[in-house]
Amino acid sequence: MASEELAQKLQRRLQLEESGAAAAGGDHAAAGGPEPEEEAAARNSLTGSAGAELSAKLSRRQDINEGAAQPRRAAVFNPYTEFKEFSRRQIKDMERMFRLYDSGRDGYIDLMELKLMMEKLGAPQTHLGLKNMIKEVDEDFDGKLSFRE
Questions:
Q1: Lowest mean pLDDT: which of 57-61, 84-88, 94-98, 118-122?
Q2: Does residue 44 fall inside a structural domain?
Q3: What span, in angstroms and rounded, lies between the C-alpha atoms of 42 and 79?
Q4: What is the DSSP string of 77-131?
Q5: According to the model, what pLDDT value does residue 40 have?
Q6: pLDDT tens-digit readout, 58-84
């Protein structure tokens, strides 16, 4: 689903760039002169970087889906700056819940801990379902869930 969303965003971005370039070319031609080089360079650098960024994210997502991606680790993990959509209180509550279900106290929730967690929450899952849940969010391909993931 994420790769489809990125593909749609990339497609929309490309369509906007094409329509913007066509409109800008028509405006400058109507004004009686060519587009200034500084404006063209600035617009190309902005749209080029956005297109390149979306393209890189889409490629990374496809590699992950195919199982060919190399794991990446964040140098420093700060949940308060990385997850700005949550308040500090919400993050602290999530950390507390994570530690509650991390019975091995190793900083990860593995398959059996996830199984116990789902049973305690009243939504037991099959092993295959649990493995799929982990696979969906496991960024470093270690088969376990860290708090960041």
A1: 57-61
A2: no
A3: 34
A4: --HHHH-TTS-HHHHHHHHHHHHHH-TT-SSEE-HHHHHHHHHHTT----HHHHH
A5: 53
A6: 888 888 888 777 766 656 777 878 888
Residue 93 lies in a domain: yes
Residue pair 46/91 in contact (Cβ under 8 Å)? The answer is no
Q: Is the pTM of this model over 0.90?
A: no
Which tokens is 19 given? Answer: 């329509």
C-beta atoms surrounding 102 within 10 Å: 19
Domain that holds residue 95: 79-146
**Given phi > 0 = left and psi -120 to 50 = alpha, else beta, which region is 63?**
alpha
Distances in Å between the alpha carbon of 40 and those of 27, 29, 30, 149?
Answer: 13, 14, 17, 41
